[in-house]
Design goal:
Oligomer: single chain
Structural class: mainly beta
Number of strands: 11
Strand content: over 45%
Helix content: under 10%
Distance between the termini: 40 Å
Radius of gyration: 14 Å
Order of helices and strands: EEEEEEEEEEE
Largest sheet: 7 strands, mixed
C-alpha cells in the first residue's frame, strides 16, 4: 500500500506561484509513475503532469511552460512548481502514484487533495 500526503495549496493572485509537495509512504517502485491531477467541482478529474523515475516528464498542454514537476526518488516525494497561475488553474490538486502490475493491471493511489485558488 502507498499513502500520499499533499501540502502547499492556498490562495494566490493571478500571475503568482505556488509549490505543491507530496510525500509518499509505503513501497514506491522505480517503475511507478508519480503525478498530479486536478479536479473542479462537477467536472472530471484531469491529469496535469507526470514524472517517471528516470526524470522523464509529461505535461498537459494548458500547463506546459508554466508548471514544472519534479521527483526525488530517495525521499519518495513529488513536487509541482506552478508559475504564472491563472484563475482557470483553480481546483483541488491530487497527488497520484500509477503502478502497472503484471497482466496489464493498473493500480492508482491518491492523496486527499489540496485546494488551489487563483483569484484577485
Amino acid at each position: 500500500q502507498v499513502q500520499l500526503v499533499e501540502s502547499g495549496g492556498g490562495l494566490v493572485q493571478p500571475g503568482g506561484s505556488l509549490r505543491l509537495s507530496c510525500v509518499a509512504s509505503g513501497n514506491i517502485f522505480s517503475s511507478d509513475v508519480m503525478g498530479w491531477y486536478r479536479q473542479v467541482a462537477g467536472k472530471q478529474r484531469e491529469i496535469v503532469a507526470q514524472v517517471y523515475s528516470d526524470g522523464t516528464t509529461w505535461y498537459e498542454s494548458d500547463v506546459t511552460g508554466r508548471f514544472t514537476i519534479s521527483r526525488d526518488n530517495a525521499k519518495n516525494t513529488v513536487s509541482l512548481q506552478s508559475d504564472s497561475l491563472k484563475p482557470e488553474d483553480s481546483a483541488v490538486y491530487y497527488c497520484n502514484v500509477w503502478r502497472r502490475l503484471d497482466g496489464g493491471i493498473n493500480v492508482n493511489f491518491w492523496g486527499q487533495g489540496t485546494q488551489v485558488t487563483v483569484s484577485s
